[in-house]
Amino acid sequence: MGEISNHHTNTIIDCIQLCETTVSCSAVAFSSDDVGPDATNCQLKAILIGRAINPEPSNGTTLAYLYASTRCEALLAQGRRVQLLGQRDYTLQCNTDTTAEDDIVVTYTGSLNECMALCDRQSACNAVAYRESDQRCSQKSLDKSSNLQASSDVDMAYVTPLELGIAFPDKDQTGAWGPTVAFPIIPVAAALIPNSNKVFVWSADFVDDYTLTKNSSDGRFTYFATMDIVTGEVSEQFVSSTHHNMFCPGISFDPTGRLVVTGGSTDAAVSIYDPDLSDWIAAAPMHVGRGYQSSVLTSTGDIFVLGGSWSGPNETKIGEVYSPKSDIWIELPGCPTAPMETADKKGVYRSDNHAWLFSWKDGAIFQAGPSRAMNWFFVNGSGSYAPAGLRSDAEDSMCGNAVMYDIGQILTVGGSSSYDNSSGHYASQIITLGSDANSPVRVVRASEMVYPRVQANSVVLPSGEVFVTGGQAFSNLFTDYQAILYPEMFDPVTRSFRLLEAMAPVPRTYHSVATLLPDGTVFTGGGGLCGPCRWNHLDANIYEPPYLFRANKYAVRPFIWKITPQPGSSNSSSANEYLAGLSFTVTLSPLVYSMTEHTFALMRVGSVTHSTDTDQRRIPLVPVARSSPSNSTATYTLELPNDYGLMPPGWYMLFAMDDEVPSLARWINIVL
Asked: In the chain, what are the domains?
């Protein structure tokens, strides 16, 4: 249990209140014996609640902890292994018991944690079975011949070296994590470079820390790294040519695939990465300096930004709109932040951060959160907005996620009432947008997540499922306290979540990222950026979702052999450029699981920082015609949506799916 600092307070209540305003504090030790004016009787501590057994207080000392569940499922979310402070390491096995013959002694304790602590004092005990209903604690002596059996009301924990050979579900149920790949920096922001196999990540003006450089001459540069997902090669870059510290920015791809990075630590600067030039260029600065804002590409090809009081002048961060063609910013005083601000404990400094913005028809932008209040924003003239109602009975959900997993269908998950020192939410909602901008929206509660999450990342997959990974049960910035190590998957058909029993190799909490890759896997990385702290993660992993497996073997993938534009569908300048509303044919081979029942989805290339990705969206394409399969090939005619609000311009990955097994993606550029 780590000590943060020592103080003097008159009462334990004062000590607890001091803890609540101190970053990373999750426990206090208050001594009633030391009450003199110079006594340091209030000790602030940082502990991993739930994962560690709380030590007994010494005489005259009272311990107090932030509330956290110690039930098996809550502990499991933070990792299958539980470390007792200074003692043995245990492995959890929920809903499991053994026969009574294995019992050494039976007693009663207040929690599974306390049951494990009792076992640790018995040399013959190497496992416990705990029944929550009556708090029955059975201390056991097991070996590899012990008979484990399913139980609806008993949870087990056994000393890890036993290795009892618990059978885990097949990979087509859990997916699988790849090895941890070292990076020279912390991936705090990430973007998949269009029409490539490369992921761009960056940190700040340090590889593992940051400064608020504003527009001064110092620190106006950024550390980058690139990963080739085919070769696994990672290279480092240092970008100073645009004089921009790109930490905490807004990020959006423009219609041509250029990455537009706005504000952040250098609050008014704008930098654009041009894949054709493989270089960065400085763009016109914003009128309003800002950081932690959100930006989104509109259906007209412009970029809208809103909010961002983390940096820049102390003024309302009204909306602005940027034309990538003319390199001109226009202020929108009719798009204020007040309608979409949360009731954060730290005020507007946090309350206008990380808006969940979605492009829709006629240049409109829908704001789904993280505030309870939803709004429409319009960029014509000096801008305007219209309230869209409340997000059902949801609370403010700062640092939660929102993903458009189908046309006009938005899933929102997790978050917390305030940016920091606030409990994560289980709740999820599904928002259905109307047929036109500013038309009524419908909000329904979906099933709750398996675990509460804040600072997590959510990625929509070609199947329409949403992969939710990382985060914390309690928002505690720059720490891995109460990190959720098990991901879960949202099923759009049942509108429910299932736990994926594939424990992440590394905690991914505040300042972590996740984005979809062209092979249907998910890149995850980062977390930390706290200088000389122990929670920095200069690394990444690639997660392989369950749809890539059949049992424990890789599934055979379909292959997009050929794409043929229909007359008028493609611009003459490039064979992979397509206009909205037109069609093309796709030829698949081989045919493995199905002859004529393939499905298709366009996946817009993603860009993410601080759990916010306004670029990603999934557009299912229903075939309008199909040919009879022959020679192990099948040809389908696909028609694109006829509105750029449904399908914003830019680069997309086209996936074909055979019994939900995705192909490797083919790149398509939707042009205006």
From this structure: 2-65 (3.50.4), 72-166 (3.50.4.10), 173-550 (2.130.10.80), 556-671 (2.60.40.10)
